[in-house]
Amino acid sequence: MSFDIIQFRKNYPETWRLILFLGSIQWAGILLTTIAVACAVATVMESKVSTDLARRYIYHAPWFHVWLICLCINLFCVTLTRLPWKRKHYGFVITHFGIITLLFGAMIGSWFGFEAFANLKKGEEPLYRLTQNESVMIVQSPKDHFFYSIPLPVETLKLSEKKPKIFTIPDSNYYLSVDAHSPQLARVPELIPSTESASSDGAIIEFSSELAGQKISFPFTHATAEPQISDFFQMARVVWVNEIASFEKKINQWSETQMVFEKVEPIISNSSGLFSGYRFQVQTNDKKEITLFVEMPNGKKETFPISKKFPQILNLGSAVTQATVNGYWADFEMKEGKPSTKSSNPDNPALLIRLEGKQSIDPRPHLLIAPLDPEHLAFSLIRNGKSYANGKLKNGVPVSTGWGPWTVVVKSIQPHALLQYRIEPQALPSPDLIPGVRVQLLDPEKRPLSDKKWIFSGETETMAISSTQVIQMAFGLKTRPIDFGVQLNHFEVPRDEGSDTPAGFISTLWFYNSDHRVMREDHAEMNYPATYPGGFWRSVIGLNYKFSQASWNPENLEESTLQVLYDPGWPLKWIGSLMISFGIIIMFYFKDPHKKQNQETQSL
Amino acid sequence: MKKNPLYLFLLTLLCVPLFGWNSPDLWQVAIQEQGRKKPLTTMTQESLMTLSGRSTFTRPSDARKFSAQEVILGIWFNPEPWKKEPLILVNYRPLVEALGLDQKNSRFAYEELQINSVYLMKLKEVREIRMRKSNPQLDRMQKEIESLSTKLSLFQNLSLGRTFEIVPHPNEKGGHWSTLERTEELYGNTISQKLAANYEGLRIAYLDNQQEQFHKLVLEFAQELRSLSPEVYPTISILEKEYRYSELHPFRKAWIFYAIALFILLITVRWQESLGYRLAWGLILCGFGFQIYGFVIRTLISGRPPVTNMYETIIWCAFGVVLFALILEAIYRKRQFLLAACPVAVISLILADTQSSIFSSAIHPLVPVLRNNFWLTVHVLTITLSYAAFALSLAISHMAFWQVTFRNQKSESNLLFFYNYRALQIGVLLIAIGTLLGAVWANYSWGRFWDWDPKETWALIAFLSYLILLHGKLAGWWSDLGVAVGSIIAFQCVLMAWYGVNFVLGVGLHSYGFGVGGFQYVLGYVALEIVFIATGLMKHRFVKSHSS
Phi and psi of B105, rounded to 5°? Predict the structure, then answer.
């Protein structure tokens, strides 16, 4: 097909003038300069403010995309202005078309492809949904109970009471208003007066540390007469009791039961949660007699013959007030949840030992608190079994615990208490806080229908829109369904020699089809992503889902997070890249082999 | 030309470092530190560099100079006196002031810093912030406090022997080595006591200043340690290779050669041109040879191409500048390329050699995302070579600009403008390919082709700047002189992409080698450029308007 450009220019002079204008070098200069300046401004914005802002106003803003389209038009038109193309134009045409191809590929990628991530834990069911980095509000329709996903980009939206985001609840004329977002919400306990006659005293105490910038609340109510023991960072304990003195005595008592064996580790259970330090082992001699070998905490070792008359008393020294052997099983097995013996041959001998002691083996400090009067709680601070501080805790007056920087203060005392939890934003960040939004239901006239309520990200909330209808809602990250499932089968983090720094990350992934059958196994390592369905040519064309190692949780080596990419625009991107590279090479070094050497000093 | 380089080469072989109190065999003792095994000599140099910012220590009381070996072993064997010597570098002036230290000095003793109440209080504050947030934004003072804390911890660990993990693992090649104190866990009582005796012997010989005895014992110690686990212990040849590399300072020798060559080229512009040219070629080839040698050894030691931190990129850049200059020089046979390349190479290598806080020459294992030799090589080398080409263009543009505006030599400058264009071509091609390669690598490694990460974006901005420059010439918006000025301005974008993103912006995925300092020097350089261009242009305008 021969295209006569001269004829075209004669027949369509207006169009030609437009092409000349759109493809002009002046226009190119303006486009390139503004893109460069915008990008520079964006990087400064990213550094000074945030990445999200830079993306919203520049990189992913509609005007930027339009500008890139204008650039493509400019690149295309300028190639038209050089028709018919001669040998010296080849490099120029290939380069320009290469850029257009690459940008076109990016466009296809953003329309037909997606980026998501998958946070996988070993042993979980295969995931058929991936999470994306956009926040959404999921609201249920009261009519068909279907869940609708509404974009709610909290990072860039400036939500406030004056400017909330209001959207219609699907299939109804009610509205949902979102007027605040917080990245750090916590469940804060509160006591309210209870009308039930069986309810009893309740109190909330709060520990705070200036150093760690944390506040931790411990609510207590008396559901039973038993003391309530709460753990404090595994370094101390808080015990809510009825009466201090009687419990103080109990602190110094512990009892331990050990089921000990010949060849395997014993099973130990101790009332204080700690280990007494007494190591036992069952031994048989050649005469098939059973003896008990003991290694005591002070290093002393002893062996006792077993009389098989139970309970048999053992003398383990003064530290233990009572030590008895309470049972023997020659060939131990668990039957119906109870220990029993398979035979009378001592093939797997086991002994049941019970120890009791009066000296506290729990070196951790304890805080005992008990109700006293409407304004005070009685308290006692104990270390190594001895009380080092006691007295009254007045409501609102902090007291130092002696546990490093921690102080404790009574937040509220309620004689007939009901414990409730309120979700509240916290002032200081802390790793255990969860993001969330504050929502409110509005009636068809946009007047408040419910109270304002904070909801945690990832939790479903139920609200009544009328006396007969309830709907569910949730706030979280957008998820995207996929037609296959992915599961973490194994995760490995090899380390650099002699240190803890990771040398690499290897996630072994299993891919399931929609019938829950495993179709493929692949490894995702740094720089070597896993693919599904796999295959070299599918990757070339961009029809593979790519799973790249994104991040890990140093505290849980059974957890791995992968970045997922599906990019049907990929082939255009690499083809465009090749075209640009070769185009430039041709333009610079192979323009016209017939040109003489001394002509090179002339203009380009 | 054949005679001269050889002459000079032989001369350099005589530059063998003299051994004073340094043990000639200390390199035979291997240590496992920061994820790899290295000779103890390397560790002593890196440690002193971290503590003090220098490779030697001069004691103020008697001006005696101590080598890195002497200082670090001294801290190990006999820490008390070393705690009082002004070893630790604090070069951030506001911090020196805040700590109430003598403003005239920049190095202070461990003892006085360790108990400084202001330091302790500020450190506590920084630690609290770190406990609360996983990725806090710290200000300059806080980062300097943390850096100081690292130095003091290093000193303490050296004095307690905790860093000296020199006892090899009995059977695993990648196993964790142990210190002398914990030898018993790996090898039992007998061996532990023997090694303790060796150590005591060394210590006594060192303290009694018995040099001969010390050298002998060091060799015995090394052999003893090796015999514990010969399969795991690095071979003598590997240790020696690294030792020779660190003693030779190939990159330092390279810039010395380039500097001499530059000097010769300058003085032989009109007089003895041919001789000067040949001498310069020879010297530059020598320097280039040292650079190649340095790269080869460094690659063998680290197991990867040397382009992973600021130090390595700058020495590779210097290499690229000289390489392109040599190639273009060979084609066009004019001394301009070499004359342009030498100052760039000399300045870059001197910076690399002296600014240890920005350019650390220590060899560390890579972060996992960089552990892919193919992509690493191809992408990073290409981009850095493009920076080298643009640096060459920068130098040539300076020369051309100088000739036109300050010297008024139009004819010669035409040639320089053409050479600038040649350098720009190389740069534009390589930055395009390099950036695209980076995008393709990111597509595999991070699962996305282009994410507007600041480093990516600035590479694009630099590329666009040079494109605008070349298109503008095509459109007639500026002349060749304009291209020269534009090359200088556009190079600032390259500087931003290479240095600014890491050290000024401090965000994004490319912040691997984040450091502090040096910013004022870069700003100073940019200011100088502006002054240079402005005065040149004004003078040019003045001359032009008066001549017409």
Answer: -95, 160
Q: In chain A, what residues touch B369 (CB-CB under 8 Å)?
A: 526-527
Helix (H) or strand (E) holding A221: strand A214-221
Tell me, what's the pLDDT at A562? 92
- B193-212 pLDDT, tens digit per residue, is 999 999 999 999 888 888 88
The pLDDT-based confidence of B288 (bands split at 50, 70, 90) is very high
Q: What confidence tens digit (pLDDT) does each residue in B209-252 have?
A: 888 889 999 999 999 999 999 999 999 998 998 998 888 888 88
Q: Does the pLDDT of residue B19 top 60, yes or no?
A: no
Q: Chain A interface, mutation test: which of B448, B458, B503, most A Cβ atoms within 10 Å?
A: B448
Between CA A149 and CA A145 the distance in angstroms is 13
In this predicted structure, the answer to whether residue B1 has a pLDDT above a threshold of 60 is: no
DSSP B505: I
If 0-12 CB within 10 Å is exposed, 13-18 middle and 19+ buried, where does residue A162 land? exposed
With an 8 Å Cβ cutoff, are B454 and A115 in contact? no
pLDDT over threshold 60, residue B8: no
Query: What is the C-alpha separation between A110 and A132, in angstroms, rounded?
Result: 14
A428's tokens: 């200081």
Strand (E) or helix (H) holding B70:
helix B68-77
Interface check for B432 against chain A (CB to CB < 8 A): the answer is yes
Over the stretch B479-527, which tens digit does the pLDDT of each residue have?
888 999 999 999 999 999 988 887 777 655 454 334 455 677 788 888 8
Listed in sequence order, the DSSP H helices in A395-546 are 536-541
Residues of B in contact with A523 (CB under 8 A): none
Distance CA B277, CA B339 (A): 10
Distance CA A441, CA A452 (A): 8
**Taking phi first (over 0 means left), then psi (-120 to 50 degrees means alpha), and beta for anything else, what does residue A337 get?**
left
User: CB neighbours of B329 closer than 8 A, spacing ≥ 6?
Assistant: B335, B337, B338
Q: Which residues of A touch B415 (CB under 8 A)?
A: 601
Q: Cα torsion at B209, B212, B213, B217 (round to 10°)?
A: 120
ipTM for this prediction: 0.82
Q: What is the structure's pLDDT at A575?
A: 95
Amino acid in the structure at residue A503: A
> Beta-carbon neighbour count of residue B414 at 10 Å?
15
Interface of B with A in 493-512 (CB under 8 A): 501, 504-508
Question: So where are chain A's domains?
Answer: 5-112+573-601, 116-187+431-566, 200-250+363-415, 253-357
Segments in chain A below pLDDT 70: 1-3, 197-199, 211-213, 223-224, 273, 428-429, 431, 591-604
- The better pLDDT of the pair B220, B19 is held by B220
Omega of the bond leading into A84 within 30 degrees of 0 (cis):
yes
Tell me the three state secondary structure of residue A541. helix
Considering only residues B429 and A310, tell me which one the structure prediction assigns the higher pLDDT: B429
Q: In the numeric block, which tokens belong to residue B353? A: 């050699």
A540 touches chain B (CB under 8 A): no
Measured distance CA(A353)–CA(A349) in Å, rounded: 13
A205: tokens are: 């105490």
Cβ pair A121, A559 in contact under 8 A: yes
With a pLDDT cut of 70, the percent of chain B lying above it is: 91
| Structural Rg of chain A based on CA atoms | 37
* B418, B446, B471 ranked by CB distance to A25: nearest: B471
Q: Does B123 touch chain A (CB under 8 A)?
A: no
Q: Considering only CB atoms, which chain B residues are within 8 Å of A603?
A: 473-474
**Sequence ranges of the domains in chain B:** 26-239, 249-547
Q: Which of A546, A545, A506 is nearest to A526 (CA)?
A: A506
Measure the CA–CA gap between A348 and A58, rounded to whole angstroms. 73
